[in-house]
Amino acid sequence: xxxxxxxxxKPQSREVRYLGKDFDALKSELxxxxxxxxxRTYKDFNNxxxxxxxxxxxxxxxxxxxxxxxxxxxxxxxNFAEERxxxxxxxxxxxxxPKPSRPSTTILDLFQIIPSKRNDDGSFEPDIRYALVxxxxxxxxxxxxxxxITTETVDFALKSELYPRVDEVFSRNSSxxxxxxxxxxSSKAYSGKTVTRxxxxxxxxxxxxxxxxxxxxxxxxxxxxxxxxxxxxxxxxVIA
Length: 240
Known about the structure:
Helix content is 21%, strand content 31%. It is an alpha+beta fold. The strands form three sheets. Strands 1, 2, 4, 5, 7 and 8 form a six-stranded antiparallel β-sheet that branches. The protein has a three-stranded antiparallel β-sheet with strand order 9-11-10, with no helix packed on it. A two-stranded antiparallel sheet has the order 3-6.
């Protein structure tokens, strides 16, 4: 138990050891510190003693501080960071611009039935005068109701190298001559749909900021003001 400190007792210069990192190691270091520098002040190191309660509390605080220091250091390394905001900030520091939302992509096959045309040499080929041109931004729905948007203009009259045109005979007349051709073209598409939001704007506001409720936005397609900037709208793509 505690004893009265001798007035003539002068503890030597205290040496602090920085080896403890967890609760048990810190507690052990604190006990050894008290035994070495306060040998006549406190001697009761039983776990149920009041003095051990203060040592346990100090070891607990040191363990918590050690954990958060290590955690903050870990979150500052790109190879070990786990929190999303820290990963984004680190890759931005390295010059990379991350995209928070990335849609699924696919290749869509588009088909058109075109009448045949007889050439001067007697051969047949598709009559490209009936070929369609499908602009980019066409929306199609899959069987499970997922919307995809094309990213390229599809011209059935062209034979591009990226996605070659495929011509097949679709039907023949009674003489066996090609009557219609089935033309196939392909285009890259991604999962998404176009959404438009309208906001009330009080005149010309510098550095205007608006909040969009959607959190899966791919990109802003267009900003369109109306009525002398009193009302403005945003059209943007979201992941379907």
